[in-house]
Structures are given as structure tokens and as C-alpha cells.
Amino acid sequence: MKEPISVNLGEVVVSSDPADVLVAYGLGSCLGITMVDRQRHICGLLHAVLPHRLNGADPYCAKYVDSGIEGLLDAMLKAGADRRNLIIRMVGGANMLTTAGLSKTFDVGTRNIESAHETLQRLNLPLHAEETGGHSGRTVRVYVATGRVTVRVVGGVEKDL
């Protein structure tokens, strides 16, 4: 069995190899956004860090939720996925800084979730499932062979999303 492919901060990985498992470990305020085309057996995973692309950044920069979603979509379509078949799921966006008195500015997780919802709506892409928010980190896995997506909260058990 192959080692899982780790999708690191600010990366997009797309695969059609049924032996691949894509994984983003320890998502705190970051978001893991998955796109799966089960009919064409193509899966992708974005590991986005911040909500909005900065001026001058690459239009498909995966570091940012908005441009990262656009980049993931572009990579999926280039790999042969059909936009109409995409099943999209989102994991992460926790508020890891829970100290009283911190402003919403520091709640990057909530801002990431809002940016993802806005971007998906703008691109007319339906979100099929999400496990977001809270105060715990999560790990997301995408099994390319089946299109299965799982999430595991730190200290918890892996479950289907």
C-alpha cells in the first residue's frame, strides 16, 4: 500500500491514481476543501491557510481560500473532471485562539469558512458537506479509488463526511 500523499499548507493536489490517498493533517483554522468526480475517478484536495488572496498574488494561489478554490477547480477540470459531477466537502476552520476579548480579526477559521462559502457561491459550486468551526484540529483524507472522504477530530475516530 502506498504512503498517503500529504497536502501541505498552501498546496493543491489532484489525482486519478486509485492507489492514492490525499491527506491534510492537523487542520486548525486552515481549510481542507475536497473535490471528487466519482464518475471519472478524479479527486483533489486544497489546504488553504488564509481567507483572501492578496493583491499581486498568483490568481490560483493555494495559500488563500478564494484563489485556492479557483485553483483546485481549474486543476480538476484540466485533469478531466466534469464540473457537473463534482462533490465538494469542507473541513477545518476551527477557532484555535479562544482567549476572551480577542476580536474577530484573530478568528481566522471563521473568516476562512465565510470566504469558502462566498467563493463557492460565486462559482456556482454546491457544497455537499462540511465539518467546520469549533476549537479542535482535524485531519481530512480523500480515497481516490472510491471518492470517499473522511474526517478525524484530534483524539477522535475517523468517520465518513
From TrEMBL:
<dbReference type="InterPro" id="IPR038592">
    <property type="entry name" value="CheD-like_sf"/>
</dbReference>
<comment type="similarity">
    <text>Belongs to the CheD family.</text>
</comment>
<comment type="function">
    <text>Probably deamidates glutamine residues to glutamate on methyl-accepting chemotaxis receptors (MCPs), playing an important role in chemotaxis.</text>
</comment>
<dbReference type="Pfam" id="PF03975">
    <property type="entry name" value="CheD"/>
</dbReference>
<keyword id="KW-0145">Chemotaxis</keyword>
<dbReference type="InterPro" id="IPR005659">
    <property type="entry name" value="Chemorcpt_Glu_NH3ase_CheD"/>
</dbReference>
<protein>
    <recommendedName>
        <fullName>Probable chemoreceptor glutamine deamidase CheD</fullName>
        <ecNumber>3.5.1.44</ecNumber>
    </recommendedName>
</protein>
<dbReference type="InterPro" id="IPR011324">
    <property type="entry name" value="Cytotoxic_necrot_fac-like_cat"/>
</dbReference>
<keyword id="KW-0378">Hydrolase</keyword>
<dbReference type="GO" id="GO:0050568">
    <property type="term" value="F:protein-glutamine glutaminase activity"/>
</dbReference>
<dbReference type="GO" id="GO:0006935">
    <property type="term" value="P:chemotaxis"/>
</dbReference>
